[in-house]
Write a structure and sequence with these properties.
207 residues; alpha/beta; Aconitase, domain 4; 8 helices; 31% helix; globular
C-alpha cells in the first residue's frame, strides 16, 4: 500500500448524496480478479450514454476535472453493497482522497484498508468545497494527513481520523503488512505450541 501523507490534486465535485457502490462500479464489471483495471468503469451509468459515448455534462468528462485526485461528494457516500471494487475503481481512476459529510461504514473501512483516505467534514464545509470546485474548475486541493487539514483556495478545514488508522496510512501499511511485522513473534509462538494442538503447518497423515 502506498503511504498517504499529503495529496495535491484537482478537486472534483460530485454534488450527489447517497451514491451507492453500484453507482460507483456497476455489478457487471466485478468479474475481474485483479485490483486494477476498474477506472474506466467508474460511475459508468452516469458517465456514458447507452451507446457508450461520454455524457459531456458529467463531471469526470469535463476536461478541467479529468485528472483530479480529490473527490468531494454528498453525504452517505459508498452505501449499498460491501464490494471492495468501489474503492479499487476510485483508486484506479487516480483518486487518493474522498471528502464527504458521511460515509457508509463498510466503504470507509475498505477505503482505509486500501490506502484511499475518506475525509469526513461538516456539511457546510463540504458545501463550501463543492461550490468552490464547481465555480472554479481546476481548483487545487491539498489533503494533508500529517496535520489533518484540507485546503483549497481560501478555505482551510481540519478533520479527525482514528490515530491507529492514521499511523498505518502514513506508513503505507495494510492489515497484511501489520501481521508480517509481527512474524517473529508469531513464529516464536508456533515453536512453543504443544505437539498435541492443531497445527496447519503439519501435514495430516493419510488415513
Amino acid at each position: 500500500m502506498n503511504p498517504f501523507r499529503c495529496e495535491h490534486g484537482t478537486l472534483v465535485p460530485l454534488d450527489r448524496s447517497d451514491v451507492d457502490t453500484d453507482q460507483i462500479i456497476p455489478k457487471q464489471f466485478l468479474k475481474r480478479s485483479e485490483r486494477t483495471g476498474y477506472g474506466p468503469f467508474l460511475f459508468f451509468d452516469a458517465r456514458y450514454d447507452d451507446d457508450g459515448a461520454e455524457r459531456p455534462d458529467f463531471v469526470l468528462n469535463v476536461p478541467a476535472y479529468r485528472d483530479g485526485s480529490v473527490l468531494v461528494v454528498g453525504r452517505n457516500f459508498g452505501c449499498g453493497s460491501s464490494r471492495e471494487h468501489a474503492v479499487w475503481a476510485l483508486q484506479d481512476a487516480g483518486f487518493r482522497a474522498v471528502i464527504a459529510p458521511s460515509f457508509a461504514d463498510i466503504f470507509a473501512g475498505n477505503a482505509l484498508s486500501c490506502g484511499l483516505l475518506p475525509v469526513t467534514l461538516p456539511e457546510h464545509e463540504v458545501r463550501a468545497l463543492l461550490d468552490l470546485a464547481t465555480e472554479d474548475p481546476g481548483t487545487e486541493c491539498i489533503v494533508d494527513l500529517e496535520d489533518c487539514t484540507v485546503s483549497a483556495g481560501d478555505l482551510r478545514f481540519t478533520f479527525a481520523i482514528d490515530p491507529d488508522r492514521r499511523r498505518l496510512l502514513l506508513a503505507g501499511l495494510d492489515d497484511i503488512s501489520v501481521t508480517l511485522h509481527s512474524l517473529a513473534d508469531i513464529d516464536g509462538f508456533e515453536v512453543g505450541r504443544p505437539e498435541w494442538m492443531p497445527d496447519v503447518a503439519r501435514v495430516a497423515e493419510p488415513a
